[in-house]
């Protein structure tokens, strides 16, 4: 399932090894293709990726993405998330009530 994600796009975490991350809105930073090498992000070493992964960052900049793919339960504002666990957020999210007021004005 391809969502044509792009850096800078917003996404919702819909699954995670750390349940507290589910429902968080994040910004996509960098795509990490499956490979056999470890990599370092924000000073933390991560194991090789077996599937498509994105480095994501919390929108509020708080250190609140935890567990799962972030080793040793270190709390950081960004880290890897499997692409299949992300749902793209696109389109107009203006509440319908506000839209109808704008049209009548």
Please tell me about this protein's structure:
- This protein has 105 residues and is mainly β.
- The chain has one domain (10-104).
- Helices cover 9% and strands 31% of the residues.
- The chain has one helix at residues 96-104; strands at residues 10-13, 25-32, 39-41, 44-46, 53-58, 78-82, 86-89.
- β3 and β4 form a beta hairpin.
- The longest helix is centred in the C-terminal third of the chain and has 9 residues, at 96-104.
- It is globular.
- 19% of the residues are buried.
- Residues 67-73 have low confidence and may be disordered.
Record the SSE blueprint.
Blueprint: E1 10-13, E2 25-32, E3 39-41, E4 44-46, E5 53-58, E6 78-82, E7 86-89, H1 96-104
Antiparallel strand pairs: 1-2, 1-7, 2-5, 3-4, 5-6
Subunit arrangement of the protein? single chain
Q: What is the typical, i.e. mean, pLDDT?
A: 76
What is the count of distinct domains?
A: 1
Q: Note the run of SSEs as H and E.
A: EEEEEEEH
General shape: globular
Summed up, the helix count is: 1
Write a concise keyword list for the protein shown above.
7 strands; 105 residues; mainly beta; 5-stranded antiparallel beta sheet
TL;DR of this structure?
The protein is mainly beta and 105 residues long.
């Amino acid at each position: 399932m391809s969502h044509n994600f792009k850096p800078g796009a917003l996404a919702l975490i819909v699954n995670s090894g750390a349940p507290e991350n589910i429902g968080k809105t994040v910004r996509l930073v960098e795509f990490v293709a499956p490979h056999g090498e470890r990599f370092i992000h924000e000073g933390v070493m991560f194991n090789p990726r077996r599937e498509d992964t994105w480095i994501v960052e919390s929108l509020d900049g708080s250190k609140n993405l935890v567990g799962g793919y972030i080793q040793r339960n270190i709390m950081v504002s960004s880290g890897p998330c499997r692409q299949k666990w992300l749902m793209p957020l696109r389109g107009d999210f203006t509440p319908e009530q506000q839209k109808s007021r704008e049209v009548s004005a």
